[in-house]
Amino acid sequence: MSVSIYLNNLQVQIVNGTFGKKGKFQNSIIADAPDGSIINGIVMDQDSFVQFLNRVWAEYNLSKKDVHLVVNSNKIPGRLVDVPVLNTTKTRQFVGRELSDMQKEDEESFICYNEVGGGGKNSKMRKLYAEIVANSLIKDYIDIFAAAGITLKSIVSAEGSIISLLDQTVAKQYKTFVLQIINGNIVSNILWVNGSFNYFNSTRLFNDIGSEAYYTDCARSLSNLSQFMMAHKIEHEIERIVIAGTPRNDISFYGQYVDQQGINAPVELLYQGLGDTPQQNFEAQQAIFAVSGLFDVGKEGNFILKYNSKSTEKKMDPQLKKSIIIVGSTLGAMLLIFAITFFMRLSRQNTYDELVEYNEDPLVVSQASLFDAMSIRRDALSAQSNSISNVLDTIETYPILNDDVIQKLNDTAKGYAEIEIGSFDAENGLVNVTAKAEDVEKINQYIDRLEEQEDMFSSVKYSGYNMTQDGTWSINVVCTFAPGVGREGEQHEE
């Protein structure tokens, strides 16, 4: 069982569950840390906080080996970055240039990022949420938890991890929505537009928690978000206002506060795929930041994996290092000049005479001319060969909708839904499928089975449900094949 802990201020969220790309919530613990020990995600009193960790871990018998930390701190700046599809090394370099204005010259740090929806395997651009993290900050967290005998497997920011959670849950159902997290006197709004993350902000509230004025302030922060959409000419309509962090099971009353701000979108409680039961889903949304730590952001988003342990070693005094470099460089240059001069005085004339004789040899001149002509011919043939190879490699990545692939599509639906295969776009690897079933849950299970076919599909997207005239439910599914699907038989024949 994995443990995720969220640090912000006094109230600490801790959850048990399963860590992975699609994390699962089991149960939660809400505990108050000692006064003043945590401020804005930073541990201010290490001794009292370590005592707090020891007490909580002992009282609830929590795992000390599989622990994931979520930190909400303004010391971890980040922003949304549009990046071309590049390899990992070039992506890091590109993101580093984009965040250069956030970098502090006197602080050793590293770049982390995670993909936040939009595009796909065939897209030329990716949207990344990128952050700059100080080495010293991560070292402090590792040392503090180690003092309590706890080994951290990952450290992520609250913003980065909640974005990853939404990408795997709510974004599967709605394309344009707002997640509003009510956490005491702090309300956070995450805007998702047309299938990808767009904006994150947090607002401090000053009215009594639970009062009418309090909920009015919460709804007013959504109005500010609407103004942001207008200013950035975002024309997509908000489909849902999803609420998390509330102890109230029935939030229908909140809809009137949202309506008063001129936002015409239904309000619902976050429940998508957080736990196995309705009660677990309800408990999970109350500790949503800690729950987000159960969702794996990948190795490029995990602060611990990117942390450079060598940054903690004692460094040479910069002035001394500069002096040594200057003296060494000067001495090396002098020795090199002396050696070159001595050698040239001994061999210059002989070498010169040999070169003149060689260059004027008629046979050498003839061979050089022939070599130049053959090199030009070779380069032309090589360019043609490479062009043909590139075309063939590209064609080999196009999927084929053959009998085996169609049979696999039918096998996936057997017992769950009746399917009808519509159009197929080989260049983009897209196939449209219409699925019908008498029970909506059967269609949901069919969609889950499609998403499990990772060797066959790179993505599975679907629209809302429709009731047909014969009383069954139908849904349109667009599947993106993985490169080369359906060509296994061709390769075997070859």
Layout of strands and helices, then pairs:
Layout: E1 2-7, E2 11-18, E3 24-32, E4 38-39, E5 42-43, H1 46-60, E6 67-71, E7 78-84, H2 88-98, E8 109-115, E9 125-134, H3 135-147, E10 152-157, H4 158-168, E11 177-183, E12 186-193, E13 196-204, H5 212-231, E14 240-244, H6 254-260, E15 267-269, H7 278-286, H8 288-292, H9 303-306, H10 318-359, H11 362-397, H12 403-413, E16 418-425, E17 430-437, H13 440-452, E18 457-462, E19 466-467, E20 473-481, H14 488-493
Parallel strand pairs: 1-6, 6-10, 11-14, 14-15
Antiparallel strand pairs: 1-2, 2-3, 4-5, 7-9, 8-9, 11-12, 12-13, 16-17, 17-20, 18-20, 19-20
Helix pairs in contact: 5-6
Q: Count of DSSP helices?
A: 14
Protein structure class: alpha+beta
Q: Averaged pLDDT, please?
A: 85
The major beta sheet can be summarized as: 5 strands, mixed
Polypeptide structure, described:
The chain has helices spanning 46-60, 88-98, 135-147, 158-168, 212-231, 254-260, 278-286, 288-292, 303-306, 318-359, 362-397, 403-413, 440-452, 488-493; strands spanning 2-7, 11-18, 24-32, 38-39, 42-43, 67-71, 78-84, 109-115, 125-134, 152-157, 177-183, 186-193, 196-204, 240-244, 267-269, 418-425, 430-437, 457-462, 466-467, 473-481. With 494 residues, the chain is of the alpha+beta class. It has four domains: 1-169 and 289-315, Nucleotidyltransferase, domain 5, CATH 3.30.420; 171-269, ATPase, nucleotide binding domain (Nucleotidyltransferase, domain 5), CATH 3.30.420.40; 319-396, no CATH class; 403-493, 2-Layer Sandwich (Gyrase A, domain 2). It has a five-stranded mixed β-sheet with strand order 3-2-1-6-10. Strands 13-12-11-14-15 form a five-stranded mixed β-sheet, with helices on both faces. The longest helix is centred in the last third of the chain and has 42 residues, at 318-359. It is globular, with a radius of gyration of 30 Å.
